[in-house]
Write a structure and sequence with these properties.
- The protein is an alpha/beta fold.
- About 40% of the residues lie in helices and about 10% in strands.
- The protein is built from 16 helices and 11 strands.
- The strands form 4 sheets. The protein has a 5-stranded parallel sheet with strand order 2-1-3-4-5, sandwiched between helices. Strands 6-7 form a two-stranded antiparallel ribbon. A two-stranded antiparallel sheet has the order 8-9.
- Helix 2 links the parallel strand 1 and strand 2.
- The longest helix has 20 residues.
- It is globular.
């Protein structure tokens, strides 16, 4: 849940070239202190940017109506530029679906924004994105307050370890005092990816549990001591995988989790914990219940040997590959562009059967 009292301390500047009252009121309902700026008033907007704001929200195409002189990337660049007017604050970009697609093709501007979202989805899921804005603001403050100390930022205990390459990368951000870069790498490659941290979908898959069963919540309570409490934990629920494996080894007498199928894994959990967990079953068109990942589209458990790897730009050494299932690939043609040519041919051939 949102901590409205804490959010009331957060100031947002919303920049648009059209009416802003509706979104301003919506954000204020979630406790933010929101000021607006008309992009048509260029000098006034620049002056506003130089004031102290915890976060910025701006429409992409600010010159569409002929009133604004520049679009969002120019204002964002002003905020990000190191110097007298540099601001360590998150920036959220919102616009129509078509404009967002065009923007993402401009790789030169991708390092300016913390979040890129369509305006329609932003308004429809404002509770979710308000929580993420709050987490971003707190992350920026924590990075500065801890002086880029990765252990403090992630609130690691003595039993957790960090890949030395991630440590080196964080050190480079510290040397450049790049709060944005540090925040982004932690969010995208640690918190929101598969690796040292895991979410509910991956926990359910690796333990072979149907997460819709009544006792899944009770199972999560058993591994509560391994819950992640560092940067962005208020918006993304995660657990330390190494810690969760300590839990498994303790109750299973170190049986290999990966070599058991879903029914065997769940049987051990039920026997040791006194629960009534239900084993997960394979996705349509799949057969194996030796789950170790999940379909990124359907969020259902998946054996990697039966899935298709999603090609990701610049996958870091501490990140694991993500997958989609055959069934999801057949039902969602648009996702196939993220697969290898061989995988696409295989899926097309299967679809013709």
């Amino acid at each position: 849940m949102l901590d409205i009292e804490k959010i009331k301390e957060m100031k947002i500047l919303y920049i648009d070239d059209q009416g802003t009252d509706s979104l301003k009121l919506d954000l204020e309902k979630y406790g933010f202190d929101v000021e607006t700026s008309d992009a048509g008033e260029f000098n006034s907007t620049l002056a506003k940017i130089n004031e102290d704001f915890d976060a910025y929200v701006m429409d992409f195409e600010l010159s569409a109506c002929g009133t604004g002189m520049v679009d969002a990337p120019t204002y964002a660049s002003t905020i990000r530029t190191f110097g007298q007017n540099h601001k360590d604050s998150p920036i959220v970009l919102i616009s129509s679906d078509q404009k967002i697609h065009q923007f993402k093709q401009d790789f030169s501007s991708l390092d300016l924004f913390d979040k890129i979202i369509t305006k329609e989805e932003f308004c429809q899921k404002l509770s979710k994105y308000s929580k993420q804005i709050e987490a971003l603001v707190n992350a920026y403050k924590t990075i500065k307050n801890t002086d880029f100390d990765i252990c403090k930022m992630l609130e690691m205990d003595a039993g957790e370890t960090i890949d030395f390459r991630l440590q080196n990368l964080i050190s480079s951000f510290k040397n450049n005092q790049d709060v944005y870069g540090c925040s982004r790498i932690i969010l995208e490659t640690v918190v929101r990816s598969v690796g040292m941290l895991v979410g509910q979908e991956l926990i359910a898959a690796r333990f072979g549990i149907d997460k819709t069963c009544d006792d899944f919540g009770s199972f999560l309570e058993y591994i509560g001591k391994y819950k992640y409490k560092g940067l962005f934990s208020s918006a993304y629920e995660r657990w330390w995988w190494n810690g969760v494996m300590v839990f498994w080894n303790d109750i299973s007498e170190k049986q290999s989790l990966r070599r058991l199928d879903a029914t065997e894994r769940v049987a051990i959990l039920n026997s040791k914990l006194g629960l009534k967990l239900v084993p997960a079953t394979p996705i349509k068109n799949n057969f194996s219940s030796y789950f170790w990942t999940y379909c990124k589209g359907s969020l259902l458990p998946l054996d990697p040997s039966e899935g298709y790897v999603l090609m990701q730009k610049e996958l870091k050494p501490w990140q694991e590959e993500e997958y989609i299932s055959l069934d999801y690939a057949l039902e969602t043609p648009s996702v196939r562009k993220y697969l290898t040519p061989t995988a696409r041919k295989e899926i097309l051939a299967y679809g013709k059967k």
